[in-house]
Sequence to fold (223 residues):
Amino acid sequence: RKEVEQDPGPFNVPEGATVAFNCTYSNSASQSFFWYRQDCRKEPKLLMSVYSSGNEDGRFTAQLNRASQYISLLIRDSKLSDSATYLCVVNINFNKFYFGSGTKLNVKP
Amino acid sequence: NAGVTQTPKFRILKIGQSMTLQCTQDMNHNYMYWYRQDPGMGLKLIYYSVGAGITDKGEVPNGYNVSRSTTEDFPLRLELAAPSQTSVYFCASSYGGSSYNEQFFGPGTRLTVL
Fold:
């Protein structure tokens, strides 16, 4: 079983739409959680960390449900520039990070 | 600051050849990591280091070796390259000490083994 699973998409949405991604993780001892963004043929970059109480950064909202072991990312008012692959990342045992395969988002004009 | 730099950007190897992928960071980070990313897949941890002189295996260490003689450098060595090692290799660093520390990635090395 994979440590982190994501719907690969692609999610094709029009500009201005709201889109949500989910991610599930298998290890209940996971300590910290992140969403990274990866543009085509580029390195991943941190989008936001995900805290237990949920957190928001502008148009982006992240939620964590430890009981069900899933993480979500909500993007409101999608922009063309949001087109990318979104990677769910889980930290286990402090030094080891597990990445999901990513969810591809295409925002269309 | 240059951040995390990797060389080379691209490389084609023949089966059985060896090479070293270079990674350098100028942020004085304690923690450094090597990942590989196969097409359409997430990143998988190969090796990591929590400081100079200290390294440990990640999820997929077979066929690779690392060393960490300085804080700045964390080279990855491929011995006897195989087609299964065709991948994009990313080096990353973080300040460490907290499980919520951000990882900063280099631009990657695209390796093809033929």
In short: Chain A touches chain B through 21 residues (CB under 8 Å).
